[in-house]
Design brief:
Layout lengths: L4 E5 L1 H10 L6 E6 L10 H11 L7 E6 L1 H9 L4 H13 L9 H15 L3 H9 L3 E10 L8 H17 L8 E7 L21 E5 L2 H11 L9 E4 L3 E6 L17 E5 L27 E6 L1 H5 L11 H4 L2 H14 L1 H9 L2 E5 L1
Parallel strand pairs: 1-11, 2-3, 2-9, 3-4, 5-6, 9-10
Antiparallel strand pairs: 1-10, 4-5, 4-8, 7-8
Helix pairs in contact: 2-4, 2-12, 3-4, 4-5
Length: 353
């Protein structure tokens, strides 16, 4: 039977793994993509990585995510990451909305997931104080061209953004500014001291994470336009329309550091730079940014073996009844431990990225 897990490695990473294997001390960055419920197929990997693979780690590990990836890593950075990740999974996979729910109801219901991830102020403090698992994540701030309040205005602005992005990804800077919220020890506001110092593709504002801004910033990172209301104020970042970080960085096409490997548990075997690039099959992460990346993804055969022959996605909310959807998502999260076991035992296909 085909191995359930594929490990795709860039040239530098592939040579390293062939010589030394995949060792936790060799990894400098852990990346998590946007994608909503797609992450359920990675739940078992998250549990294994947080609870066993990185257990006892002493040197800093940079966590970088957007949207669902940011929420996942908000769990990794807590004192008990396995329990936090389980709370996130349980709260998310049982979410239910009325079929005619408006944006306010969806926003309020989605916020209950964040309450489950951070049940007390102490859980927020644990993230800020964690010297090893250093949380960094993306929020997009709408510029004036894209900050209308009405649905028609937002839809028009999104259409204009998509059209401009079709011509060039660099035009995103006209409509959104990337906000990089960083662990206090990962660089703060000074780009030259930041762990992610070489970002030049889009305008980037760096904001140090605090107990006061962690939760609203994470809520903003998952605020899908037209689905969830933007966050209007984030301490340290000011006022504005703060929305889904996946708009600028859906799967991350970044010039990662060359000092260590970049481990990326992902639901696809490819990387799409931004939210507006999803339908642009020719726009993928650049080879020069993949040199030291190790991408973990389910095999096509494993995905076909799931209920409905696919990994979960947001369309499940409208296409399936709550009972069927919750049962489906529960089965996928249980099956996801097969990927973790494959990584643990070496039962995976090693391929060039």
């Amino acid at each position: 039977m085909q191995a359930p897990l594929i490990v795709k490695a860039g040239p530098m990473a592939l040579e390293h793994i062939q010589q030394h294997g995949l060792r936790q001390d060799d990894i400098a960055v852990l990346v998590g993509a946007s994608g909503g419920p797609k992450w359920f197929c990675l739940f078992g990997l998250d549990q294994y990585l947080a609870g066993e693979f990185f257990r006892g780690r002493q040197q800093p590990l940079q966590l970088l995510g957007s949207s669902a990836g940011a929420w996942r890593f908000g769990c990794f950075a807590q004192a008990d990451p396995v329990a936090a990740s389980q709370r996130f999974c349980d709260a998310y996979r049982t979410l239910c909305y009325a079929k005619d729910a408006g944006i306010d109801e969806i926003t309020a219901t989605s916020a209950t997931v964040m309450d489950a991830v951070f049940p007390t102020q102490q859980h927020l403090q644990q993230v800020i104080d964690n010297p090893v698992f250093r949380l960094n994540f993306i929020v997009a701030r709408s510029r004036k061209l894209n900050s209308g309040s009405g649905k028609a205005a937002q839809l028009g602005a999104l259409t204009l953004t998509a059209a401009a992005n079709l011509v060039s990804r660099k035009t995103l800077g006209l409509f959104y500014q990337r906000y990089l919220f960083q662990h206090p020890a990962s660089g703060g506001t000074n780009p030259t001291n930041s762990f992610f110092a070489d970002l030049q593709d889009l305008p980037t504002q760096r904001i140090p994470l605090t107990v006061d801004n962690l939760k609203p910033a994470l809520l903003a990172s998952g605020a899908i336009p037209l689905v969830i209301s933007p966050v209007r104020h984030i301490p340290g970042a000011g006022f504005g329309h703060f929305v889904d970080g996946g708009i600028t960085d859906y799967h991350f096409d970044w010039p990662f550091c060359n000092e260590g490997l970049v481990l990326y548990p992902h639901f696809y075997p490819h990387l799409t730079p931004g939210w507006f690039d999803k339908s642009l099959g020719w726009r993928r992460a650049k080879g020069k940014n993949l040199q030291n990346m190790v991408l973990l993804c389910p095999s096509a055969a494993w995905v076909r073996s799931l209920p409905f022959g696919k990994i979960p996605d947001r369309t499940d909310f409208s296409s399936l009844s709550d009972e069927v959807r919750i049962a489906y998502w529960h089965e996928v999260t249980q099956r996801s431990f097969e990927l973790a076991e494959a990584l643990k035992t070496g039962n995976y296909q090693l391929q060039a990225l």
